[in-house]
Design goal:
Layout lengths: L2 E5 L2 H13 L5 E5 L5 E3 L2 E3 L1 H10 L17 H8 L10 H15 L4 H11 L5 E4 L6 E6 L2 E4 H7 L8 E5 L10 H7 L2 E4 L4 H9 L2 H8 L5 E4 L2 E2 L2 E2 L4 H9 L4 H7 L6 E5 L6 H5 L4 E5 L6 H16 L6 H4 L8
Parallel strand pairs: 1-2, 1-9, 2-5, 9-10, 10-13, 13-14
Antiparallel strand pairs: 3-4, 6-7, 6-8, 11-12
Helix pairs in contact: 1-2, 1-13, 4-5, 7-9
The chain binds guanosine-5'-diphosphate and calcium ion.
Guanosine-5'-diphosphate binds next to helix 1.
Length: 326
């Protein structure tokens, strides 16, 4: 089975990890957010792609949710001692990957090619693709003005309320090689429980990706990142309240209007089922907290079986985009 999954970092990586345990990894393509990417200390860092990469390679720090297990911070301490830029946390082990990637990019390799190379070297069987190889950067509008994503998220601990988001470079960005093909060949399209605004949003800002999703002929299932209306971590709940008008499942579904057929959300939010249904999206209620490997896998299985129980959208009958489908 071919599965395409749109993903951010922490929540996304946990979910994609569960997916790899639930179905054949060779059929999985993770399409990752690059709006968080940054250049720091001369290195190109792609935090969300790396979270997925480390999770699938079993190198990730489960507790922290990002970066590598058994990490040390000696290099960064030296940077700090030397009054260098030490606000963005880069561990010693993690740095090795950024060195290799940065060198490859400087030699003219595309982000998608170097990501594939890193995944191969780490023994990852699933495909990990950046949404785009082009420069796409998330900017956060606050009362203090517009901030780069990482300035707001990491340096300021996402304290400022968000008035809006902007994806610099999105208009010109083309999907990375393999992205449209993965969507085209998918039997199921999944939206990981990632932040809809700043993790999935930048992926959907690439027009050809959004168009491919709108024209899908296979079921698309999103998993909500909120439990009891709250984010496990990060600003998704505050952003939904401010930018989406509330934190009910319907508001999550509304972020993906026209793009999903099913929303999987937590038992704690069961009261929101009718609101989801009213949007023409099928509600599926389950436990969504990915406490351990078994829970991650169960959630992925629930999303996959929800897809298999869902009728293919009407668009399927009008065109023959999905040529392998009878
Ligand atoms: P980021 O790029 O590191 O911010 O990560 P994502 O956008 O992929 O994930 C952040 C979201 O993951 C947050 O809104 C969390 O609420 C959500 N999340 C983290 N762990 C879980 C979990 O176990 N279950 C669910 N449903 N969501 C989770
Ligand atoms: Ca992120």
């Amino acid at each position: 089975m071919n599965v395409a999954v749109l993903t951010g970092g922490v929540g996304g990586a946990r979910f994609v990890r569960g997916l790899v345990d639930a179905t054949d990894p060779a059929g999985i393509t993770a399409i990752g957010n690059v709006g968080d990417d940054l250049e720091v200390l001369g290195l190109y860092v792609s935090p969300d792609l790396d979270s997925v990469l480390y999770a699938l390679a079993d190198l990730n720090d489960e507790e922290r949710g990002w970066g590598r297990a058994g990490e040390t911070w000696n290099a960064l301490e030296t940077v700090d001692d030397l009054d260098g830029e030490a606000w963005f946390r880069l561990g010693d082990r993690d740095l090795g990957l950024h060195l290799v990637r940065t060198q490859a990019l400087q030699a003219g390799t595309s982000l998608s090619d170097v990501t594939a190379r890193l995944a191969r070297s780490l023994g990852v069987e699933a495909s990990i693709l950046p949404a785009t190889d082009d420069r796409l950067r998330t900017w956060i509008r606050t009362e203090d003005g517009e901030l780069t994503f990482q300035d707001w998220f990491v340096r300021r601990g996402h304290r400022e309320e968000v008035a809006g988001v902007r994806f610099e470079g999105a208009e010109a960005a083309r999907p990375a090689p393999g992205v449209l093909q993965a969507l085209e060949e998918a039997d199921v399209i999944l939206f990981a429980p990632s932040n809809p605004f700043v993790s999935i949003g930048p992926i959907l800002a690439v027009a050809e990706i959004r168009e491919a999703l709108e024209a899908r002929t296979v079921p698309a299932v999103a998993v909500s990142p909120l439990i009891g209306g709250r984010a496990i971590r990060g600003p998704a709940d505050r952003m939904l309240a401010r930018l989406g008008g509330g934190t009910a499942p319907a508001q999550v579904a509304d972020c993906y209007k026209g793009l999903i057929d099913v929303l999987v959300f937590d038992e704690e939010d069961v009261d929101g089922a009718a609101g989801v249904e009213a949007l023409g999206v099928r509600p599926v209620v389950t436990k969504t907290l990915m406490v351990d490997a078994a829970a991650r896998r169960r959630l992925a299985e629930t999303a996959l079986s929800a897809a298999s129980e869902t009728r293919v959208p009407a668009a399927a009958t009008s065109g023959a985009r999905h040529s392998s489908r009878p």
